[in-house]
Amino acid sequence: MLKVEGLNVYYGDSQAVRNVSLSLEPEETVAVMGRNGMGKTTLIKALIGVLPARSGTVAIGDQDLTGKRSYERVAKGLAYVPQGRMIFPYLTVEENIITGMENAADERVPDYVYETFPVLLEMRKRRGGNLSGGQQQQLAIARALVANPKVLLLDEPTEGIQPSIIKDIARALNRLKAQLHFSMLVSEQVLSFAMEVADRFLILERGEIAYESRKADIDTARVHAYLTV
What we know:
Elements: E1 2-11, E2 14-24, E3 29-33, H1 40-48, E4 55-60, E5 63-64, H2 70-76, E6 78-81, H3 93-98, H4 111-116, H5 118-122, H6 133-145, E7 151-155, H7 163-180, E8 183-188, H8 191-197, E9 200-205, E10 208-214, H9 220-228
Parallel strand pairs: 3-8, 3-9, 6-7, 7-8
Antiparallel strand pairs: 1-2, 1-4, 4-5, 9-10
Helix pairs in contact: 7-8
């Protein structure tokens, strides 16, 4: 579903992502983990086209996305939930969701959004900036999914969210993935959340993949070492 080969990304002369190659199967979830500054957010931004890659390729299905702008990548089937949510604070919840529906044939908010996130139905006329962090994260996920993506990219979805809401978001993502048949690539530091949603794990260390494992074979002690050293 998603294939990345030899991706290299720089900030000026400083290399942040080093020759990263990865693949994502249909309806698979891969967690990209690592400490702050190891390249997780840079990788996600390069995949959606916010940051340019100096070399390497990105493809979704048989479509080459290399060199395409962010909106073109969205049109081809990528969706992005950025770190910090980045919802529109002065738009209502419903207006925020509708901004993700530019290419939708039906302008109504899909039923699954409010069924999955009932708090968004209760607050649909409230400004996005008045929601809690957890509610804003649910809104950001909903806004991304109404574009009907093939691949959902999530950057640090648990950041600043209380543990009970983190569990709710994990359950909601798993349910939505099964219902809507998309794949997910999740940048994350919280291993408990990653274990709830991911089928496979990649650890970034100084911009390189240092460890890779399927969920059934994961060495949690080794992963904890990478996250805490």
